[in-house]
């Protein structure tokens, strides 16, 4: 019999036992392929959108607001309308027109509800131009023809049930105004979720930019035969070198895609990371499966060796089975991955980010990556069992004797595991003692990897002791059946360790992230209680600046003792040692010193709000050797240059306003004659004894501005908990794949174990063990394996989480909180996972015919 025929026969004979391993491979490959298809589809969607919305050449003003910390005034940069005529007169220009676009707007319907996206996509408002016909078409009505008309995109109209004639209110930094819907336009390409609104040009200039005669960009289309590059060169020469930023259609699309690409890379690598965890867990399942299959076929392998099969042939036979398993699982995984990507697109669409299956992108490399990865991982995981099968001598196999090298290999494995665990512990200990978070994070990463590998290798040694302790507390309550389950779990510590390790990995990450998340919330709320003296905080979740009208409504609200302005201003700051940084500086009212209690290491913070005075953080002071009384040159973006005296140095050992540099609002006004930017956040203090009335008044004052939230301390703490909770829930959902694969591993191990113990089960049934007792024994064995993995995983994860919190403490998050309720709940839930995993193996064992089982050879 050839090796291939033998492998095919064995694969077909054990196909039922291979199913769960194939499912594990399929899930892991599906996660990888689904991630690649999903992110490629998103990239395709944005590529089409950016290509459709970009003119042949676009002229933009020089960026004076963005940069390392510089903050916008709430209005985009502009260029004079005369540039449109200059561009139109350039040779090769077929058409030039000015455009207005602003993302600093909020649009509400007649019920006062914000119609902007909730997915994080922007609300874009601008003027309707011929360039927009590249990407939009008017479905109903007409384009806006005056200050009382507005056109909205069809997706937004459908979501909020808007129709021609409905009134919308637009809120911008320059003011707010109402207009009726005159038309509804739809995208010719997929809209990823932005809300888009159009006005006529004079209205867009006046209401969004604050004045007419200016634009945010100029779009130029080339005449036939003129390339974009040539047109860009000609327009640049006509306008003067360096005065404006010019981009071809390809350059504009690439720049926009780069901005989106950084976010997409984070999404892709995060999802692939979770897929890698699932693959790692799947490796244990495959190793266990093939180890048990090899053990069950020991006598068969001995007979084959006795009739002339070589070690290489036996080895090759097992690897071919793994190749078949990997191929089947990977092919199914590629198909499931496309389905998973479509499912993710539907989920994103329900959250407000519209993705069309018309743009579904499956590049040629995606199936290749899935197939190669799935097959290679499966074959590599089966290599050790295959090698072991090849080393079994014919006589030992025929006598059902084990391999002499087993004990020695186990000792070496345990020694290596202990060494790696010690190295991982040292890495975690070093990370906890690090002086900076950056240096400590490297030690933390190394410690996590090494300790995880160490526990995996050292697991069989731990299994003996840990399972006995768990059995003493849990299994002994079930009498002889519990002792039988304990013996079965201890019969093969290596198998128990490998099965438990699969569950350990997922739960270790759950425990680590739970500790980190709880510590972050506890630290932030503790810092809030300690540092924030204000009764109320007013801000926008989407980062919208507080408009002057909204600010005036807040200031006029009754039952308040004071309201504090807080603005971020872009500056270039030159320290006494001559180093210049582009950063931002905080302009606040003197009452801010009461609203946020910042500790100082030198000077008094109240002095920093005096004329031509400021404060700096102690990290900046140490870096540039700044002391109280030193002078710092500050060049305000769009304003004058000042020389400010350092009156206070604040500690950076906080999580709120870490590293902030403060000046007074009056000082900022002196050096920004064009006016201050709007507030990024505001604080308010209630009159003594009137907190409830003040809270109600502020809520009422902000009701016309749904983009802002009024929060007291309780609200703010709950928001922090909700934000961290949402992030953790998303991570738990992704880790669920690894835990599902781990559960499949427990099921597979128990199913193969039942087959392996067929004669033993038959004998126990013959001497009086009932079917009910048999099923309970298998369920208890599964429970103890699950609890073993959970105990190791939760303990390891808490160690990682405590170390990570030590690094967060360097960033001001000092409180360590271990959520014991969650940890205990997860541990108890692991027992139910074990019960669930044992349902099918226990049922099959209970149906086993006693005489047939005894006769099994």
What does this 3D model show about the protein?
By secondary structure, the protein is an alpha+beta fold. The protein folds into four domains: 1-54 and 265-403, no CATH class; 63-241, no CATH class; 462-533 and 713-857, no CATH class; 545-706, no CATH class. The protein is 57% helix and 16% strand. Strands 15, 16, 17, 18, 19, 20, 21, 22, 23 and 24 form a ten-stranded mixed β-sheet that branches. Strands 4, 5, 6, 7, 8, 9, 10 and 11 form an eight-stranded mixed β-sheet that branches. The protein starts with a helix and ends with a helix.
Overall pLDDT confidence: 84
If you compute it from the alpha carbons, what radius of gyration comes out, rounded to the nearest whole angstrom?
A: 34 Å
Runs in which pLDDT lies below 50 for 5 or more consecutive residues are 66-71, 401-405
End-to-end Cα distance = 23 Å
Largest sheet: 10 strands, mixed
Q: Portion of residues in helices?
A: 55-70%
In what range is the share of β-strand residues? 15-25%
Looking at the structure, what is the overall shape? globular
Number of strands: 24
SSE arrangement:
Blueprint: H1 3-13, H2 15-53, E1 57-61, E2 79-80, H3 82-88, E3 93-99, E4 101-102, E5 105-108, E6 123-127, E7 136-141, E8 149-153, H4 154-159, E9 167-172, E10 175-187, E11 195-199, H5 201-209, E12 214-215, E13 217-222, H6 228-239, E14 244-248, H7 249-296, H8 298-306, H9 311-350, H10 365-391, H11 394-398, H12 405-432, H13 437-473, H14 479-491, H15 493-531, E15 536-539, H16 548-555, E16 560-574, E17 580-588, H17 592-595, E18 600-603, E19 613-617, H18 618-624, E20 631-636, E21 641-650, E22 662-664, H19 665-671, E23 681-686, H20 691-702, E24 709-712, H21 713-756, H22 758-766, H23 771-809, H24 820-837, H25 839-846, H26 850-855
Parallel strand pairs: 6-11, 8-10, 17-22, 19-21
Antiparallel strand pairs: 1-13, 1-14, 2-12, 3-13, 4-6, 5-9, 7-10, 8-11, 9-10, 15-23, 15-24, 16-17, 16-20, 16-23, 18-21, 20-21
